[in-house]
Design goal:
One of its GO terms (molecular function) is acyltransferase activity, transferring groups other than amino-acyl groups. This is Acetyl-CoA acetyltransferase. InterPro entries: Thiolase, Thiolase-like, Thiolase_C_2. It comes from Saccharopolyspora spinosa. The chain is α/β, with parallel strands linked by helices. It folds into two domains: about 130 residues, Peroxisomal Thiolase, Chain A, domain 1, CATH 3.40.47.10; about 220 residues, 3-Layer(aba) Sandwich (Peroxisomal Thiolase, Chain A, domain 1). Helix content is about 35%, strand content about 20%. The strands form two sheets. It has a nine-stranded mixed β-sheet. Strands 5-6 form a two-stranded antiparallel sheet. α10 crosses α11. It is globular and about 55 Å long.
């Protein structure tokens, strides 16, 4: 019997930035309706529901009730910003096992407009907080600052070199009409921005926004007659190395060193085959550590890899082509937007809208999420059918 295949067949996002007209639930309902409609499907077709967040005792149960769904398969796994890459992988596995045909994956956040009702208050993990929070450690940024300082010390990388991640992301944001920050910046601007947590300046840090999104995954038997080009899920891997930053085995190596090779192996492809990278960029240091841990370069070489605009428009390794969390949006958990952008790039949707944003002839994309204090990762390889 042929292996059942799975693909992303619908994507959508809500308004981002500051959205007082939308709640956490209405964001997800709006994005879900649009993603399903794009594919030519309806809520009646959905037999699996995935979501993550901290806005309910059980976000997936609350969302099912709100949408009027009674799915056969539920997944509320929450591993921070990498949750939605994990959801895509889990949905593909459920499809391959014959358990489901159509999965709906959603996220919503009003962290900027209404942080109280969004459930994005202080994290109360018993394991982490007993050693860190009582002493005034400002998480998560302090964890990433700690990793950046260690990385600088170990490899001699400088803040100016790391700033190239933010500079390139902004060049992509200029081409994205939905991005709130569209003024070009240089490394000097990053270094001149206020220091938030040494060595991370303000422009080394992701935005703080509202926003929601949805992804629809469908089995191969549902592809005929769909209104969109399916983007196949070729490989996936999850991994976790720690929860609290005090217990990170190596501050310069993330769990991407495990999830990345797993995804590439299952997809049957190598690093040189990848045309497009969508890499979680909560902070500029996140990207450098991730690129190395994924194996796109050797330890300490990521700054050289992203130098001279290589990941910017027109570069040889296009990355975060919507502007990323640094210049487009970051509503607490950014991973779902990485999947949305990769899908649109592989469909080549921007060719007629904004050719400078379209990655020419893109066939394969690697999408990678990072969650927590550089804690958990999930990697997905996507390809055109």
């Amino acid at each position: 019997m042929a292996k059942r295949r799975a693909a992303i067949v619908g994507v959508a996002e809500t308004d981002v930035g500051k959205t007082p007209h939308l709640s956490v639930m209405s964001q997800q309902a709006t994005a879900a309706s649009a993603a399903l409609a794009e594919a030519g499907l309806s809520f009646d077709d959905v037999d699996a529901l995935f979501t993550a967040g901290r806005w309910s005792w059980s976000p997936v149960a609350t969302l099912a009730e709100y949408l009027g769904l009674r799915p056969d398969y539920l997944d509320g796994s929450n591993i921070g910003g990498s949750s939605f890459e994990a959801h895509v992988g889990h949905a593909a596995a459920a499809i391959e096992a014959g358990l489901i045909d159509v999965a709906l994956i959603t996220y919503g956040s009003t962290q900027r407009t209404d942080p109280v009702n969004n459930g994005t208050g202080a994290i109360t993990d018993v394991m982490a907080d007993q050693f860190e929070a009582p002493f005034g450690v400002p998480l998560p940024i302090a964890a990433y600052g700690l990793a950046a300082n260690r990385y600088f010390h170990q490899y001699g990388v400088t803040s100016e070199q790391m700033a190239e991640v933010a500079v390139s992301a902004r060049k992509w944001a200029v081409l994205n009409p939905k991005a709130p920050n569209r003024e070009l910046i240089g490394a000097a601007d990053v270094l001149a921005s206020p220091m938030i947590c040494e060595p991370l300046h303000k422009l080394d840090c992701c935005l703080f926004t509202d926003g929601g999104g949805a992804v629809v995954v469908a089995a191969g038997n549902r592809w005929p007659g769909l209104a969109t080009q399916p983007i196949e899920i070729l490989g996936h891997g999850d991994a976790v190395t720690h929860c609290s930053i005090a217990n990170m085995p190596d501050l310069t190596v993330t769990a991407a060193a495990q999830s990345g090779p797993s995804a590439l192996r299952l997809a049957g492809v190598g690093h040189d085959d990848i045309d497009l990278l969508e890499i979680y960029d909560s902070f500029t240091i996140t990207v450098l550590l991730t690129l190395e841990s994924l194996g796109f370069c050797k330890p300490g070489e990521a700054a050289d890899l992203v130098a001279d605009g290589r990941t910017a428009p027109g570069g040889g390794l296009p990355m975060n082509t919507d502007g990323g969390g640094l210049s487009y949006t970051h509503p607490g958990m950014y991973g779902i937007f990485l999947l949305i952008e990769a899908t649109r790039q592989l469909r080549r949707e921007y060719a007629a809208i904004e050719p400078r944003r379209q990655v020419a002839d893109a066939e394969l994309a690697l999408v990678h999420g990072t969650g927590g204090m550089l804690s958990a990762t999930s990697t997905v390889v996507l390809g055109r059918v």
